[in-house]
Design brief:
alpha+beta, 60% helix, 11% strand
Length: 397
């Protein structure tokens, strides 16, 4: 329910003035509810009915700011009006006070008033009829119901409709908020995926280009420079092809030519050959079998990024790559010699390990990377990347 205003709204002020002026107009023409010789009229002076009229008009100013107080004072004013000649304006304003108490009052007041007024209506019909034993006595209950029960019931219906509308509006706002949160999360996830793909596509080829261009510039040997330029050209062409594939994916195959398919584990041999051409001593052990497409892409990217890191950071020695199936997981392991170096042979963004960890986390697997002890290596230390990717039945390629 909305917060009640501290000042009477303009509508309430207008209603109070209209009721007061209407009552004064009826009083000026001498029009009352009862005649002066009615036995219920205890105060038959012309001025007596103006007091309940003025009090009820003042209560109209409080119909929204203090609805229960306005109804309580208005009830006393109506009771006083019944012992005068009465004014129809007072009765009409009282029905509005009853309506406002249900619509703008507390939930407890809104629930109780229709029941209380309903009981009063029945009592107003049955008690006079039991005492007077005339059918006309039932009209007393009808009048009580018209003044109390009818506006209270109308107010309850209006309040229920308003509450339902507020609840529907709140649900719509919550739905819109959740949709916006989902949109932001989807955009963030897509940006992260694009960043991983772009890093994995470009880093390997650019690292090889940087290393071989450095070699070509530092060695004054035409044969070595020619070999380095050949490797640079191969990696440039391969990098451009990968970039075209990514651009095709981003454009959602808008042209008739579909983008090149995503790499698979069958391409690991070509990936190892490319690493050997870049100067790495790579030994590949791959027996993955049929695996789901997301797992296949993640495993390929982990091997690709690990070989790129080995090209930039590893000490001289053999790089071992293992991609094998273990129970319900695909185990990916890449180890390379780990030794003290002055610095990387090519600059990096530092996002390689982060991207691999994100790929594994999206599949619900485990990932670890770091130096470890290995008695078979020259200095007893290697850099190991290990990932366990769970295989989900029914999603295999």
């Amino acid at each position: 329910m909305a917060v009640r205003p501290l000042r009477p709204p303009r509508f309430d002020v207008a209603a109070a003035l209209a009721g007061l002026l209407g009552g004064l107009l009826l009083w000026a023409f001498g029009l009352g509810v009862r005649s002066g010789d009615d036995p219920m009229v205890l105060f038959d002076g012309r001025w007596a009915l103006l007091v309940p009229l003025a009090v009820t008009a003042c209560c109209e100013l409080l119909r929204r700011t203090a609805p229960r107080t306005a109804l309580a004072v208005g009830t006393l004013a109506l009771a006083a009006d019944t012992v005068t000649q009465g004014s129809i304006a007072t009765i009409v304003m009282y029905t509005d006070l009853m309506y406002a108490a249900v619509v703008y009052g507390t939930p407890a007041t809104a629930r109780r008033l229709p029941w209380i007024t309903g009981v009063l209506t029945l009592a107003g019909m049955l008690v006079p009829y039991a005492v007077l034993r005339v059918p006309e006595a039932l009209l007393i209950g009808l009048v009580v119901g018209a003044v109390t029960f009818a506006p209270a019931s109308t107010g309850l219906i209006v309040r229920n409709h308003r509450d339902a509308a507020d609840a529907a509006r709140l649900r719509a706002e919550q739905t819109a908020l959740l949709a916006e949160m989902d949109r932001v999360q989807a955009v963030s996830s897509e940006r992260a995926r694009m960043a991983r793909e772009l890093h994995d596509l470009v880093a390997n080829h650019l690292s090889a280009i940087a290393i071989h261009s450095t070699a070509a510039l530092s060695l004054d040997d035409p044969a070595t420079s020619r070999d380095a330029l050949s490797v640079i050209r191969e990696n440039s062409v391969a990098g451009l092809a990968e970039m075209r594939r990514l651009i095709g994916i981003l454009r959602d195959a808008a042209h008739d030519t579909a983008p090149a398919p995503a790499p698979t584990l069958d391409s690991l041999d070509a990936l190892a050959d490319s690493a050997r051409a870049n100067g790495l001593d790579v030994r590949l052990d791959a027996d993955p079998g049929a695996v789901p497409a997301p797992v296949e892409l993640a495993a390929y990217r982990i091997v690709q990024e690990s070989l790129t890191n080995a090209l930039k950071h590893a000490a001289p020695g053999r790089v071992l790559v293992s991609v094998v199936r273990r129970d319900l997981c695909l185990a990916v392991t890449v180890t390379s010699p780990y030794g003290d170096r002055e610095g990387p042979r090519a600059p990096g963004s530092g996002a390689g390990l982060v991207g691999m960890r994100e790929r594994v986390a999206l599949l619900g697997g485990t990932f670890e990377a770091g130096p470890t002890r290995d008695p078979d290596s020259a200095d007893g230390r290697i850099w190991a990347v290990r990932a366990l990717l769970p295989l989900t039945e029914g999603d295999s390629a």
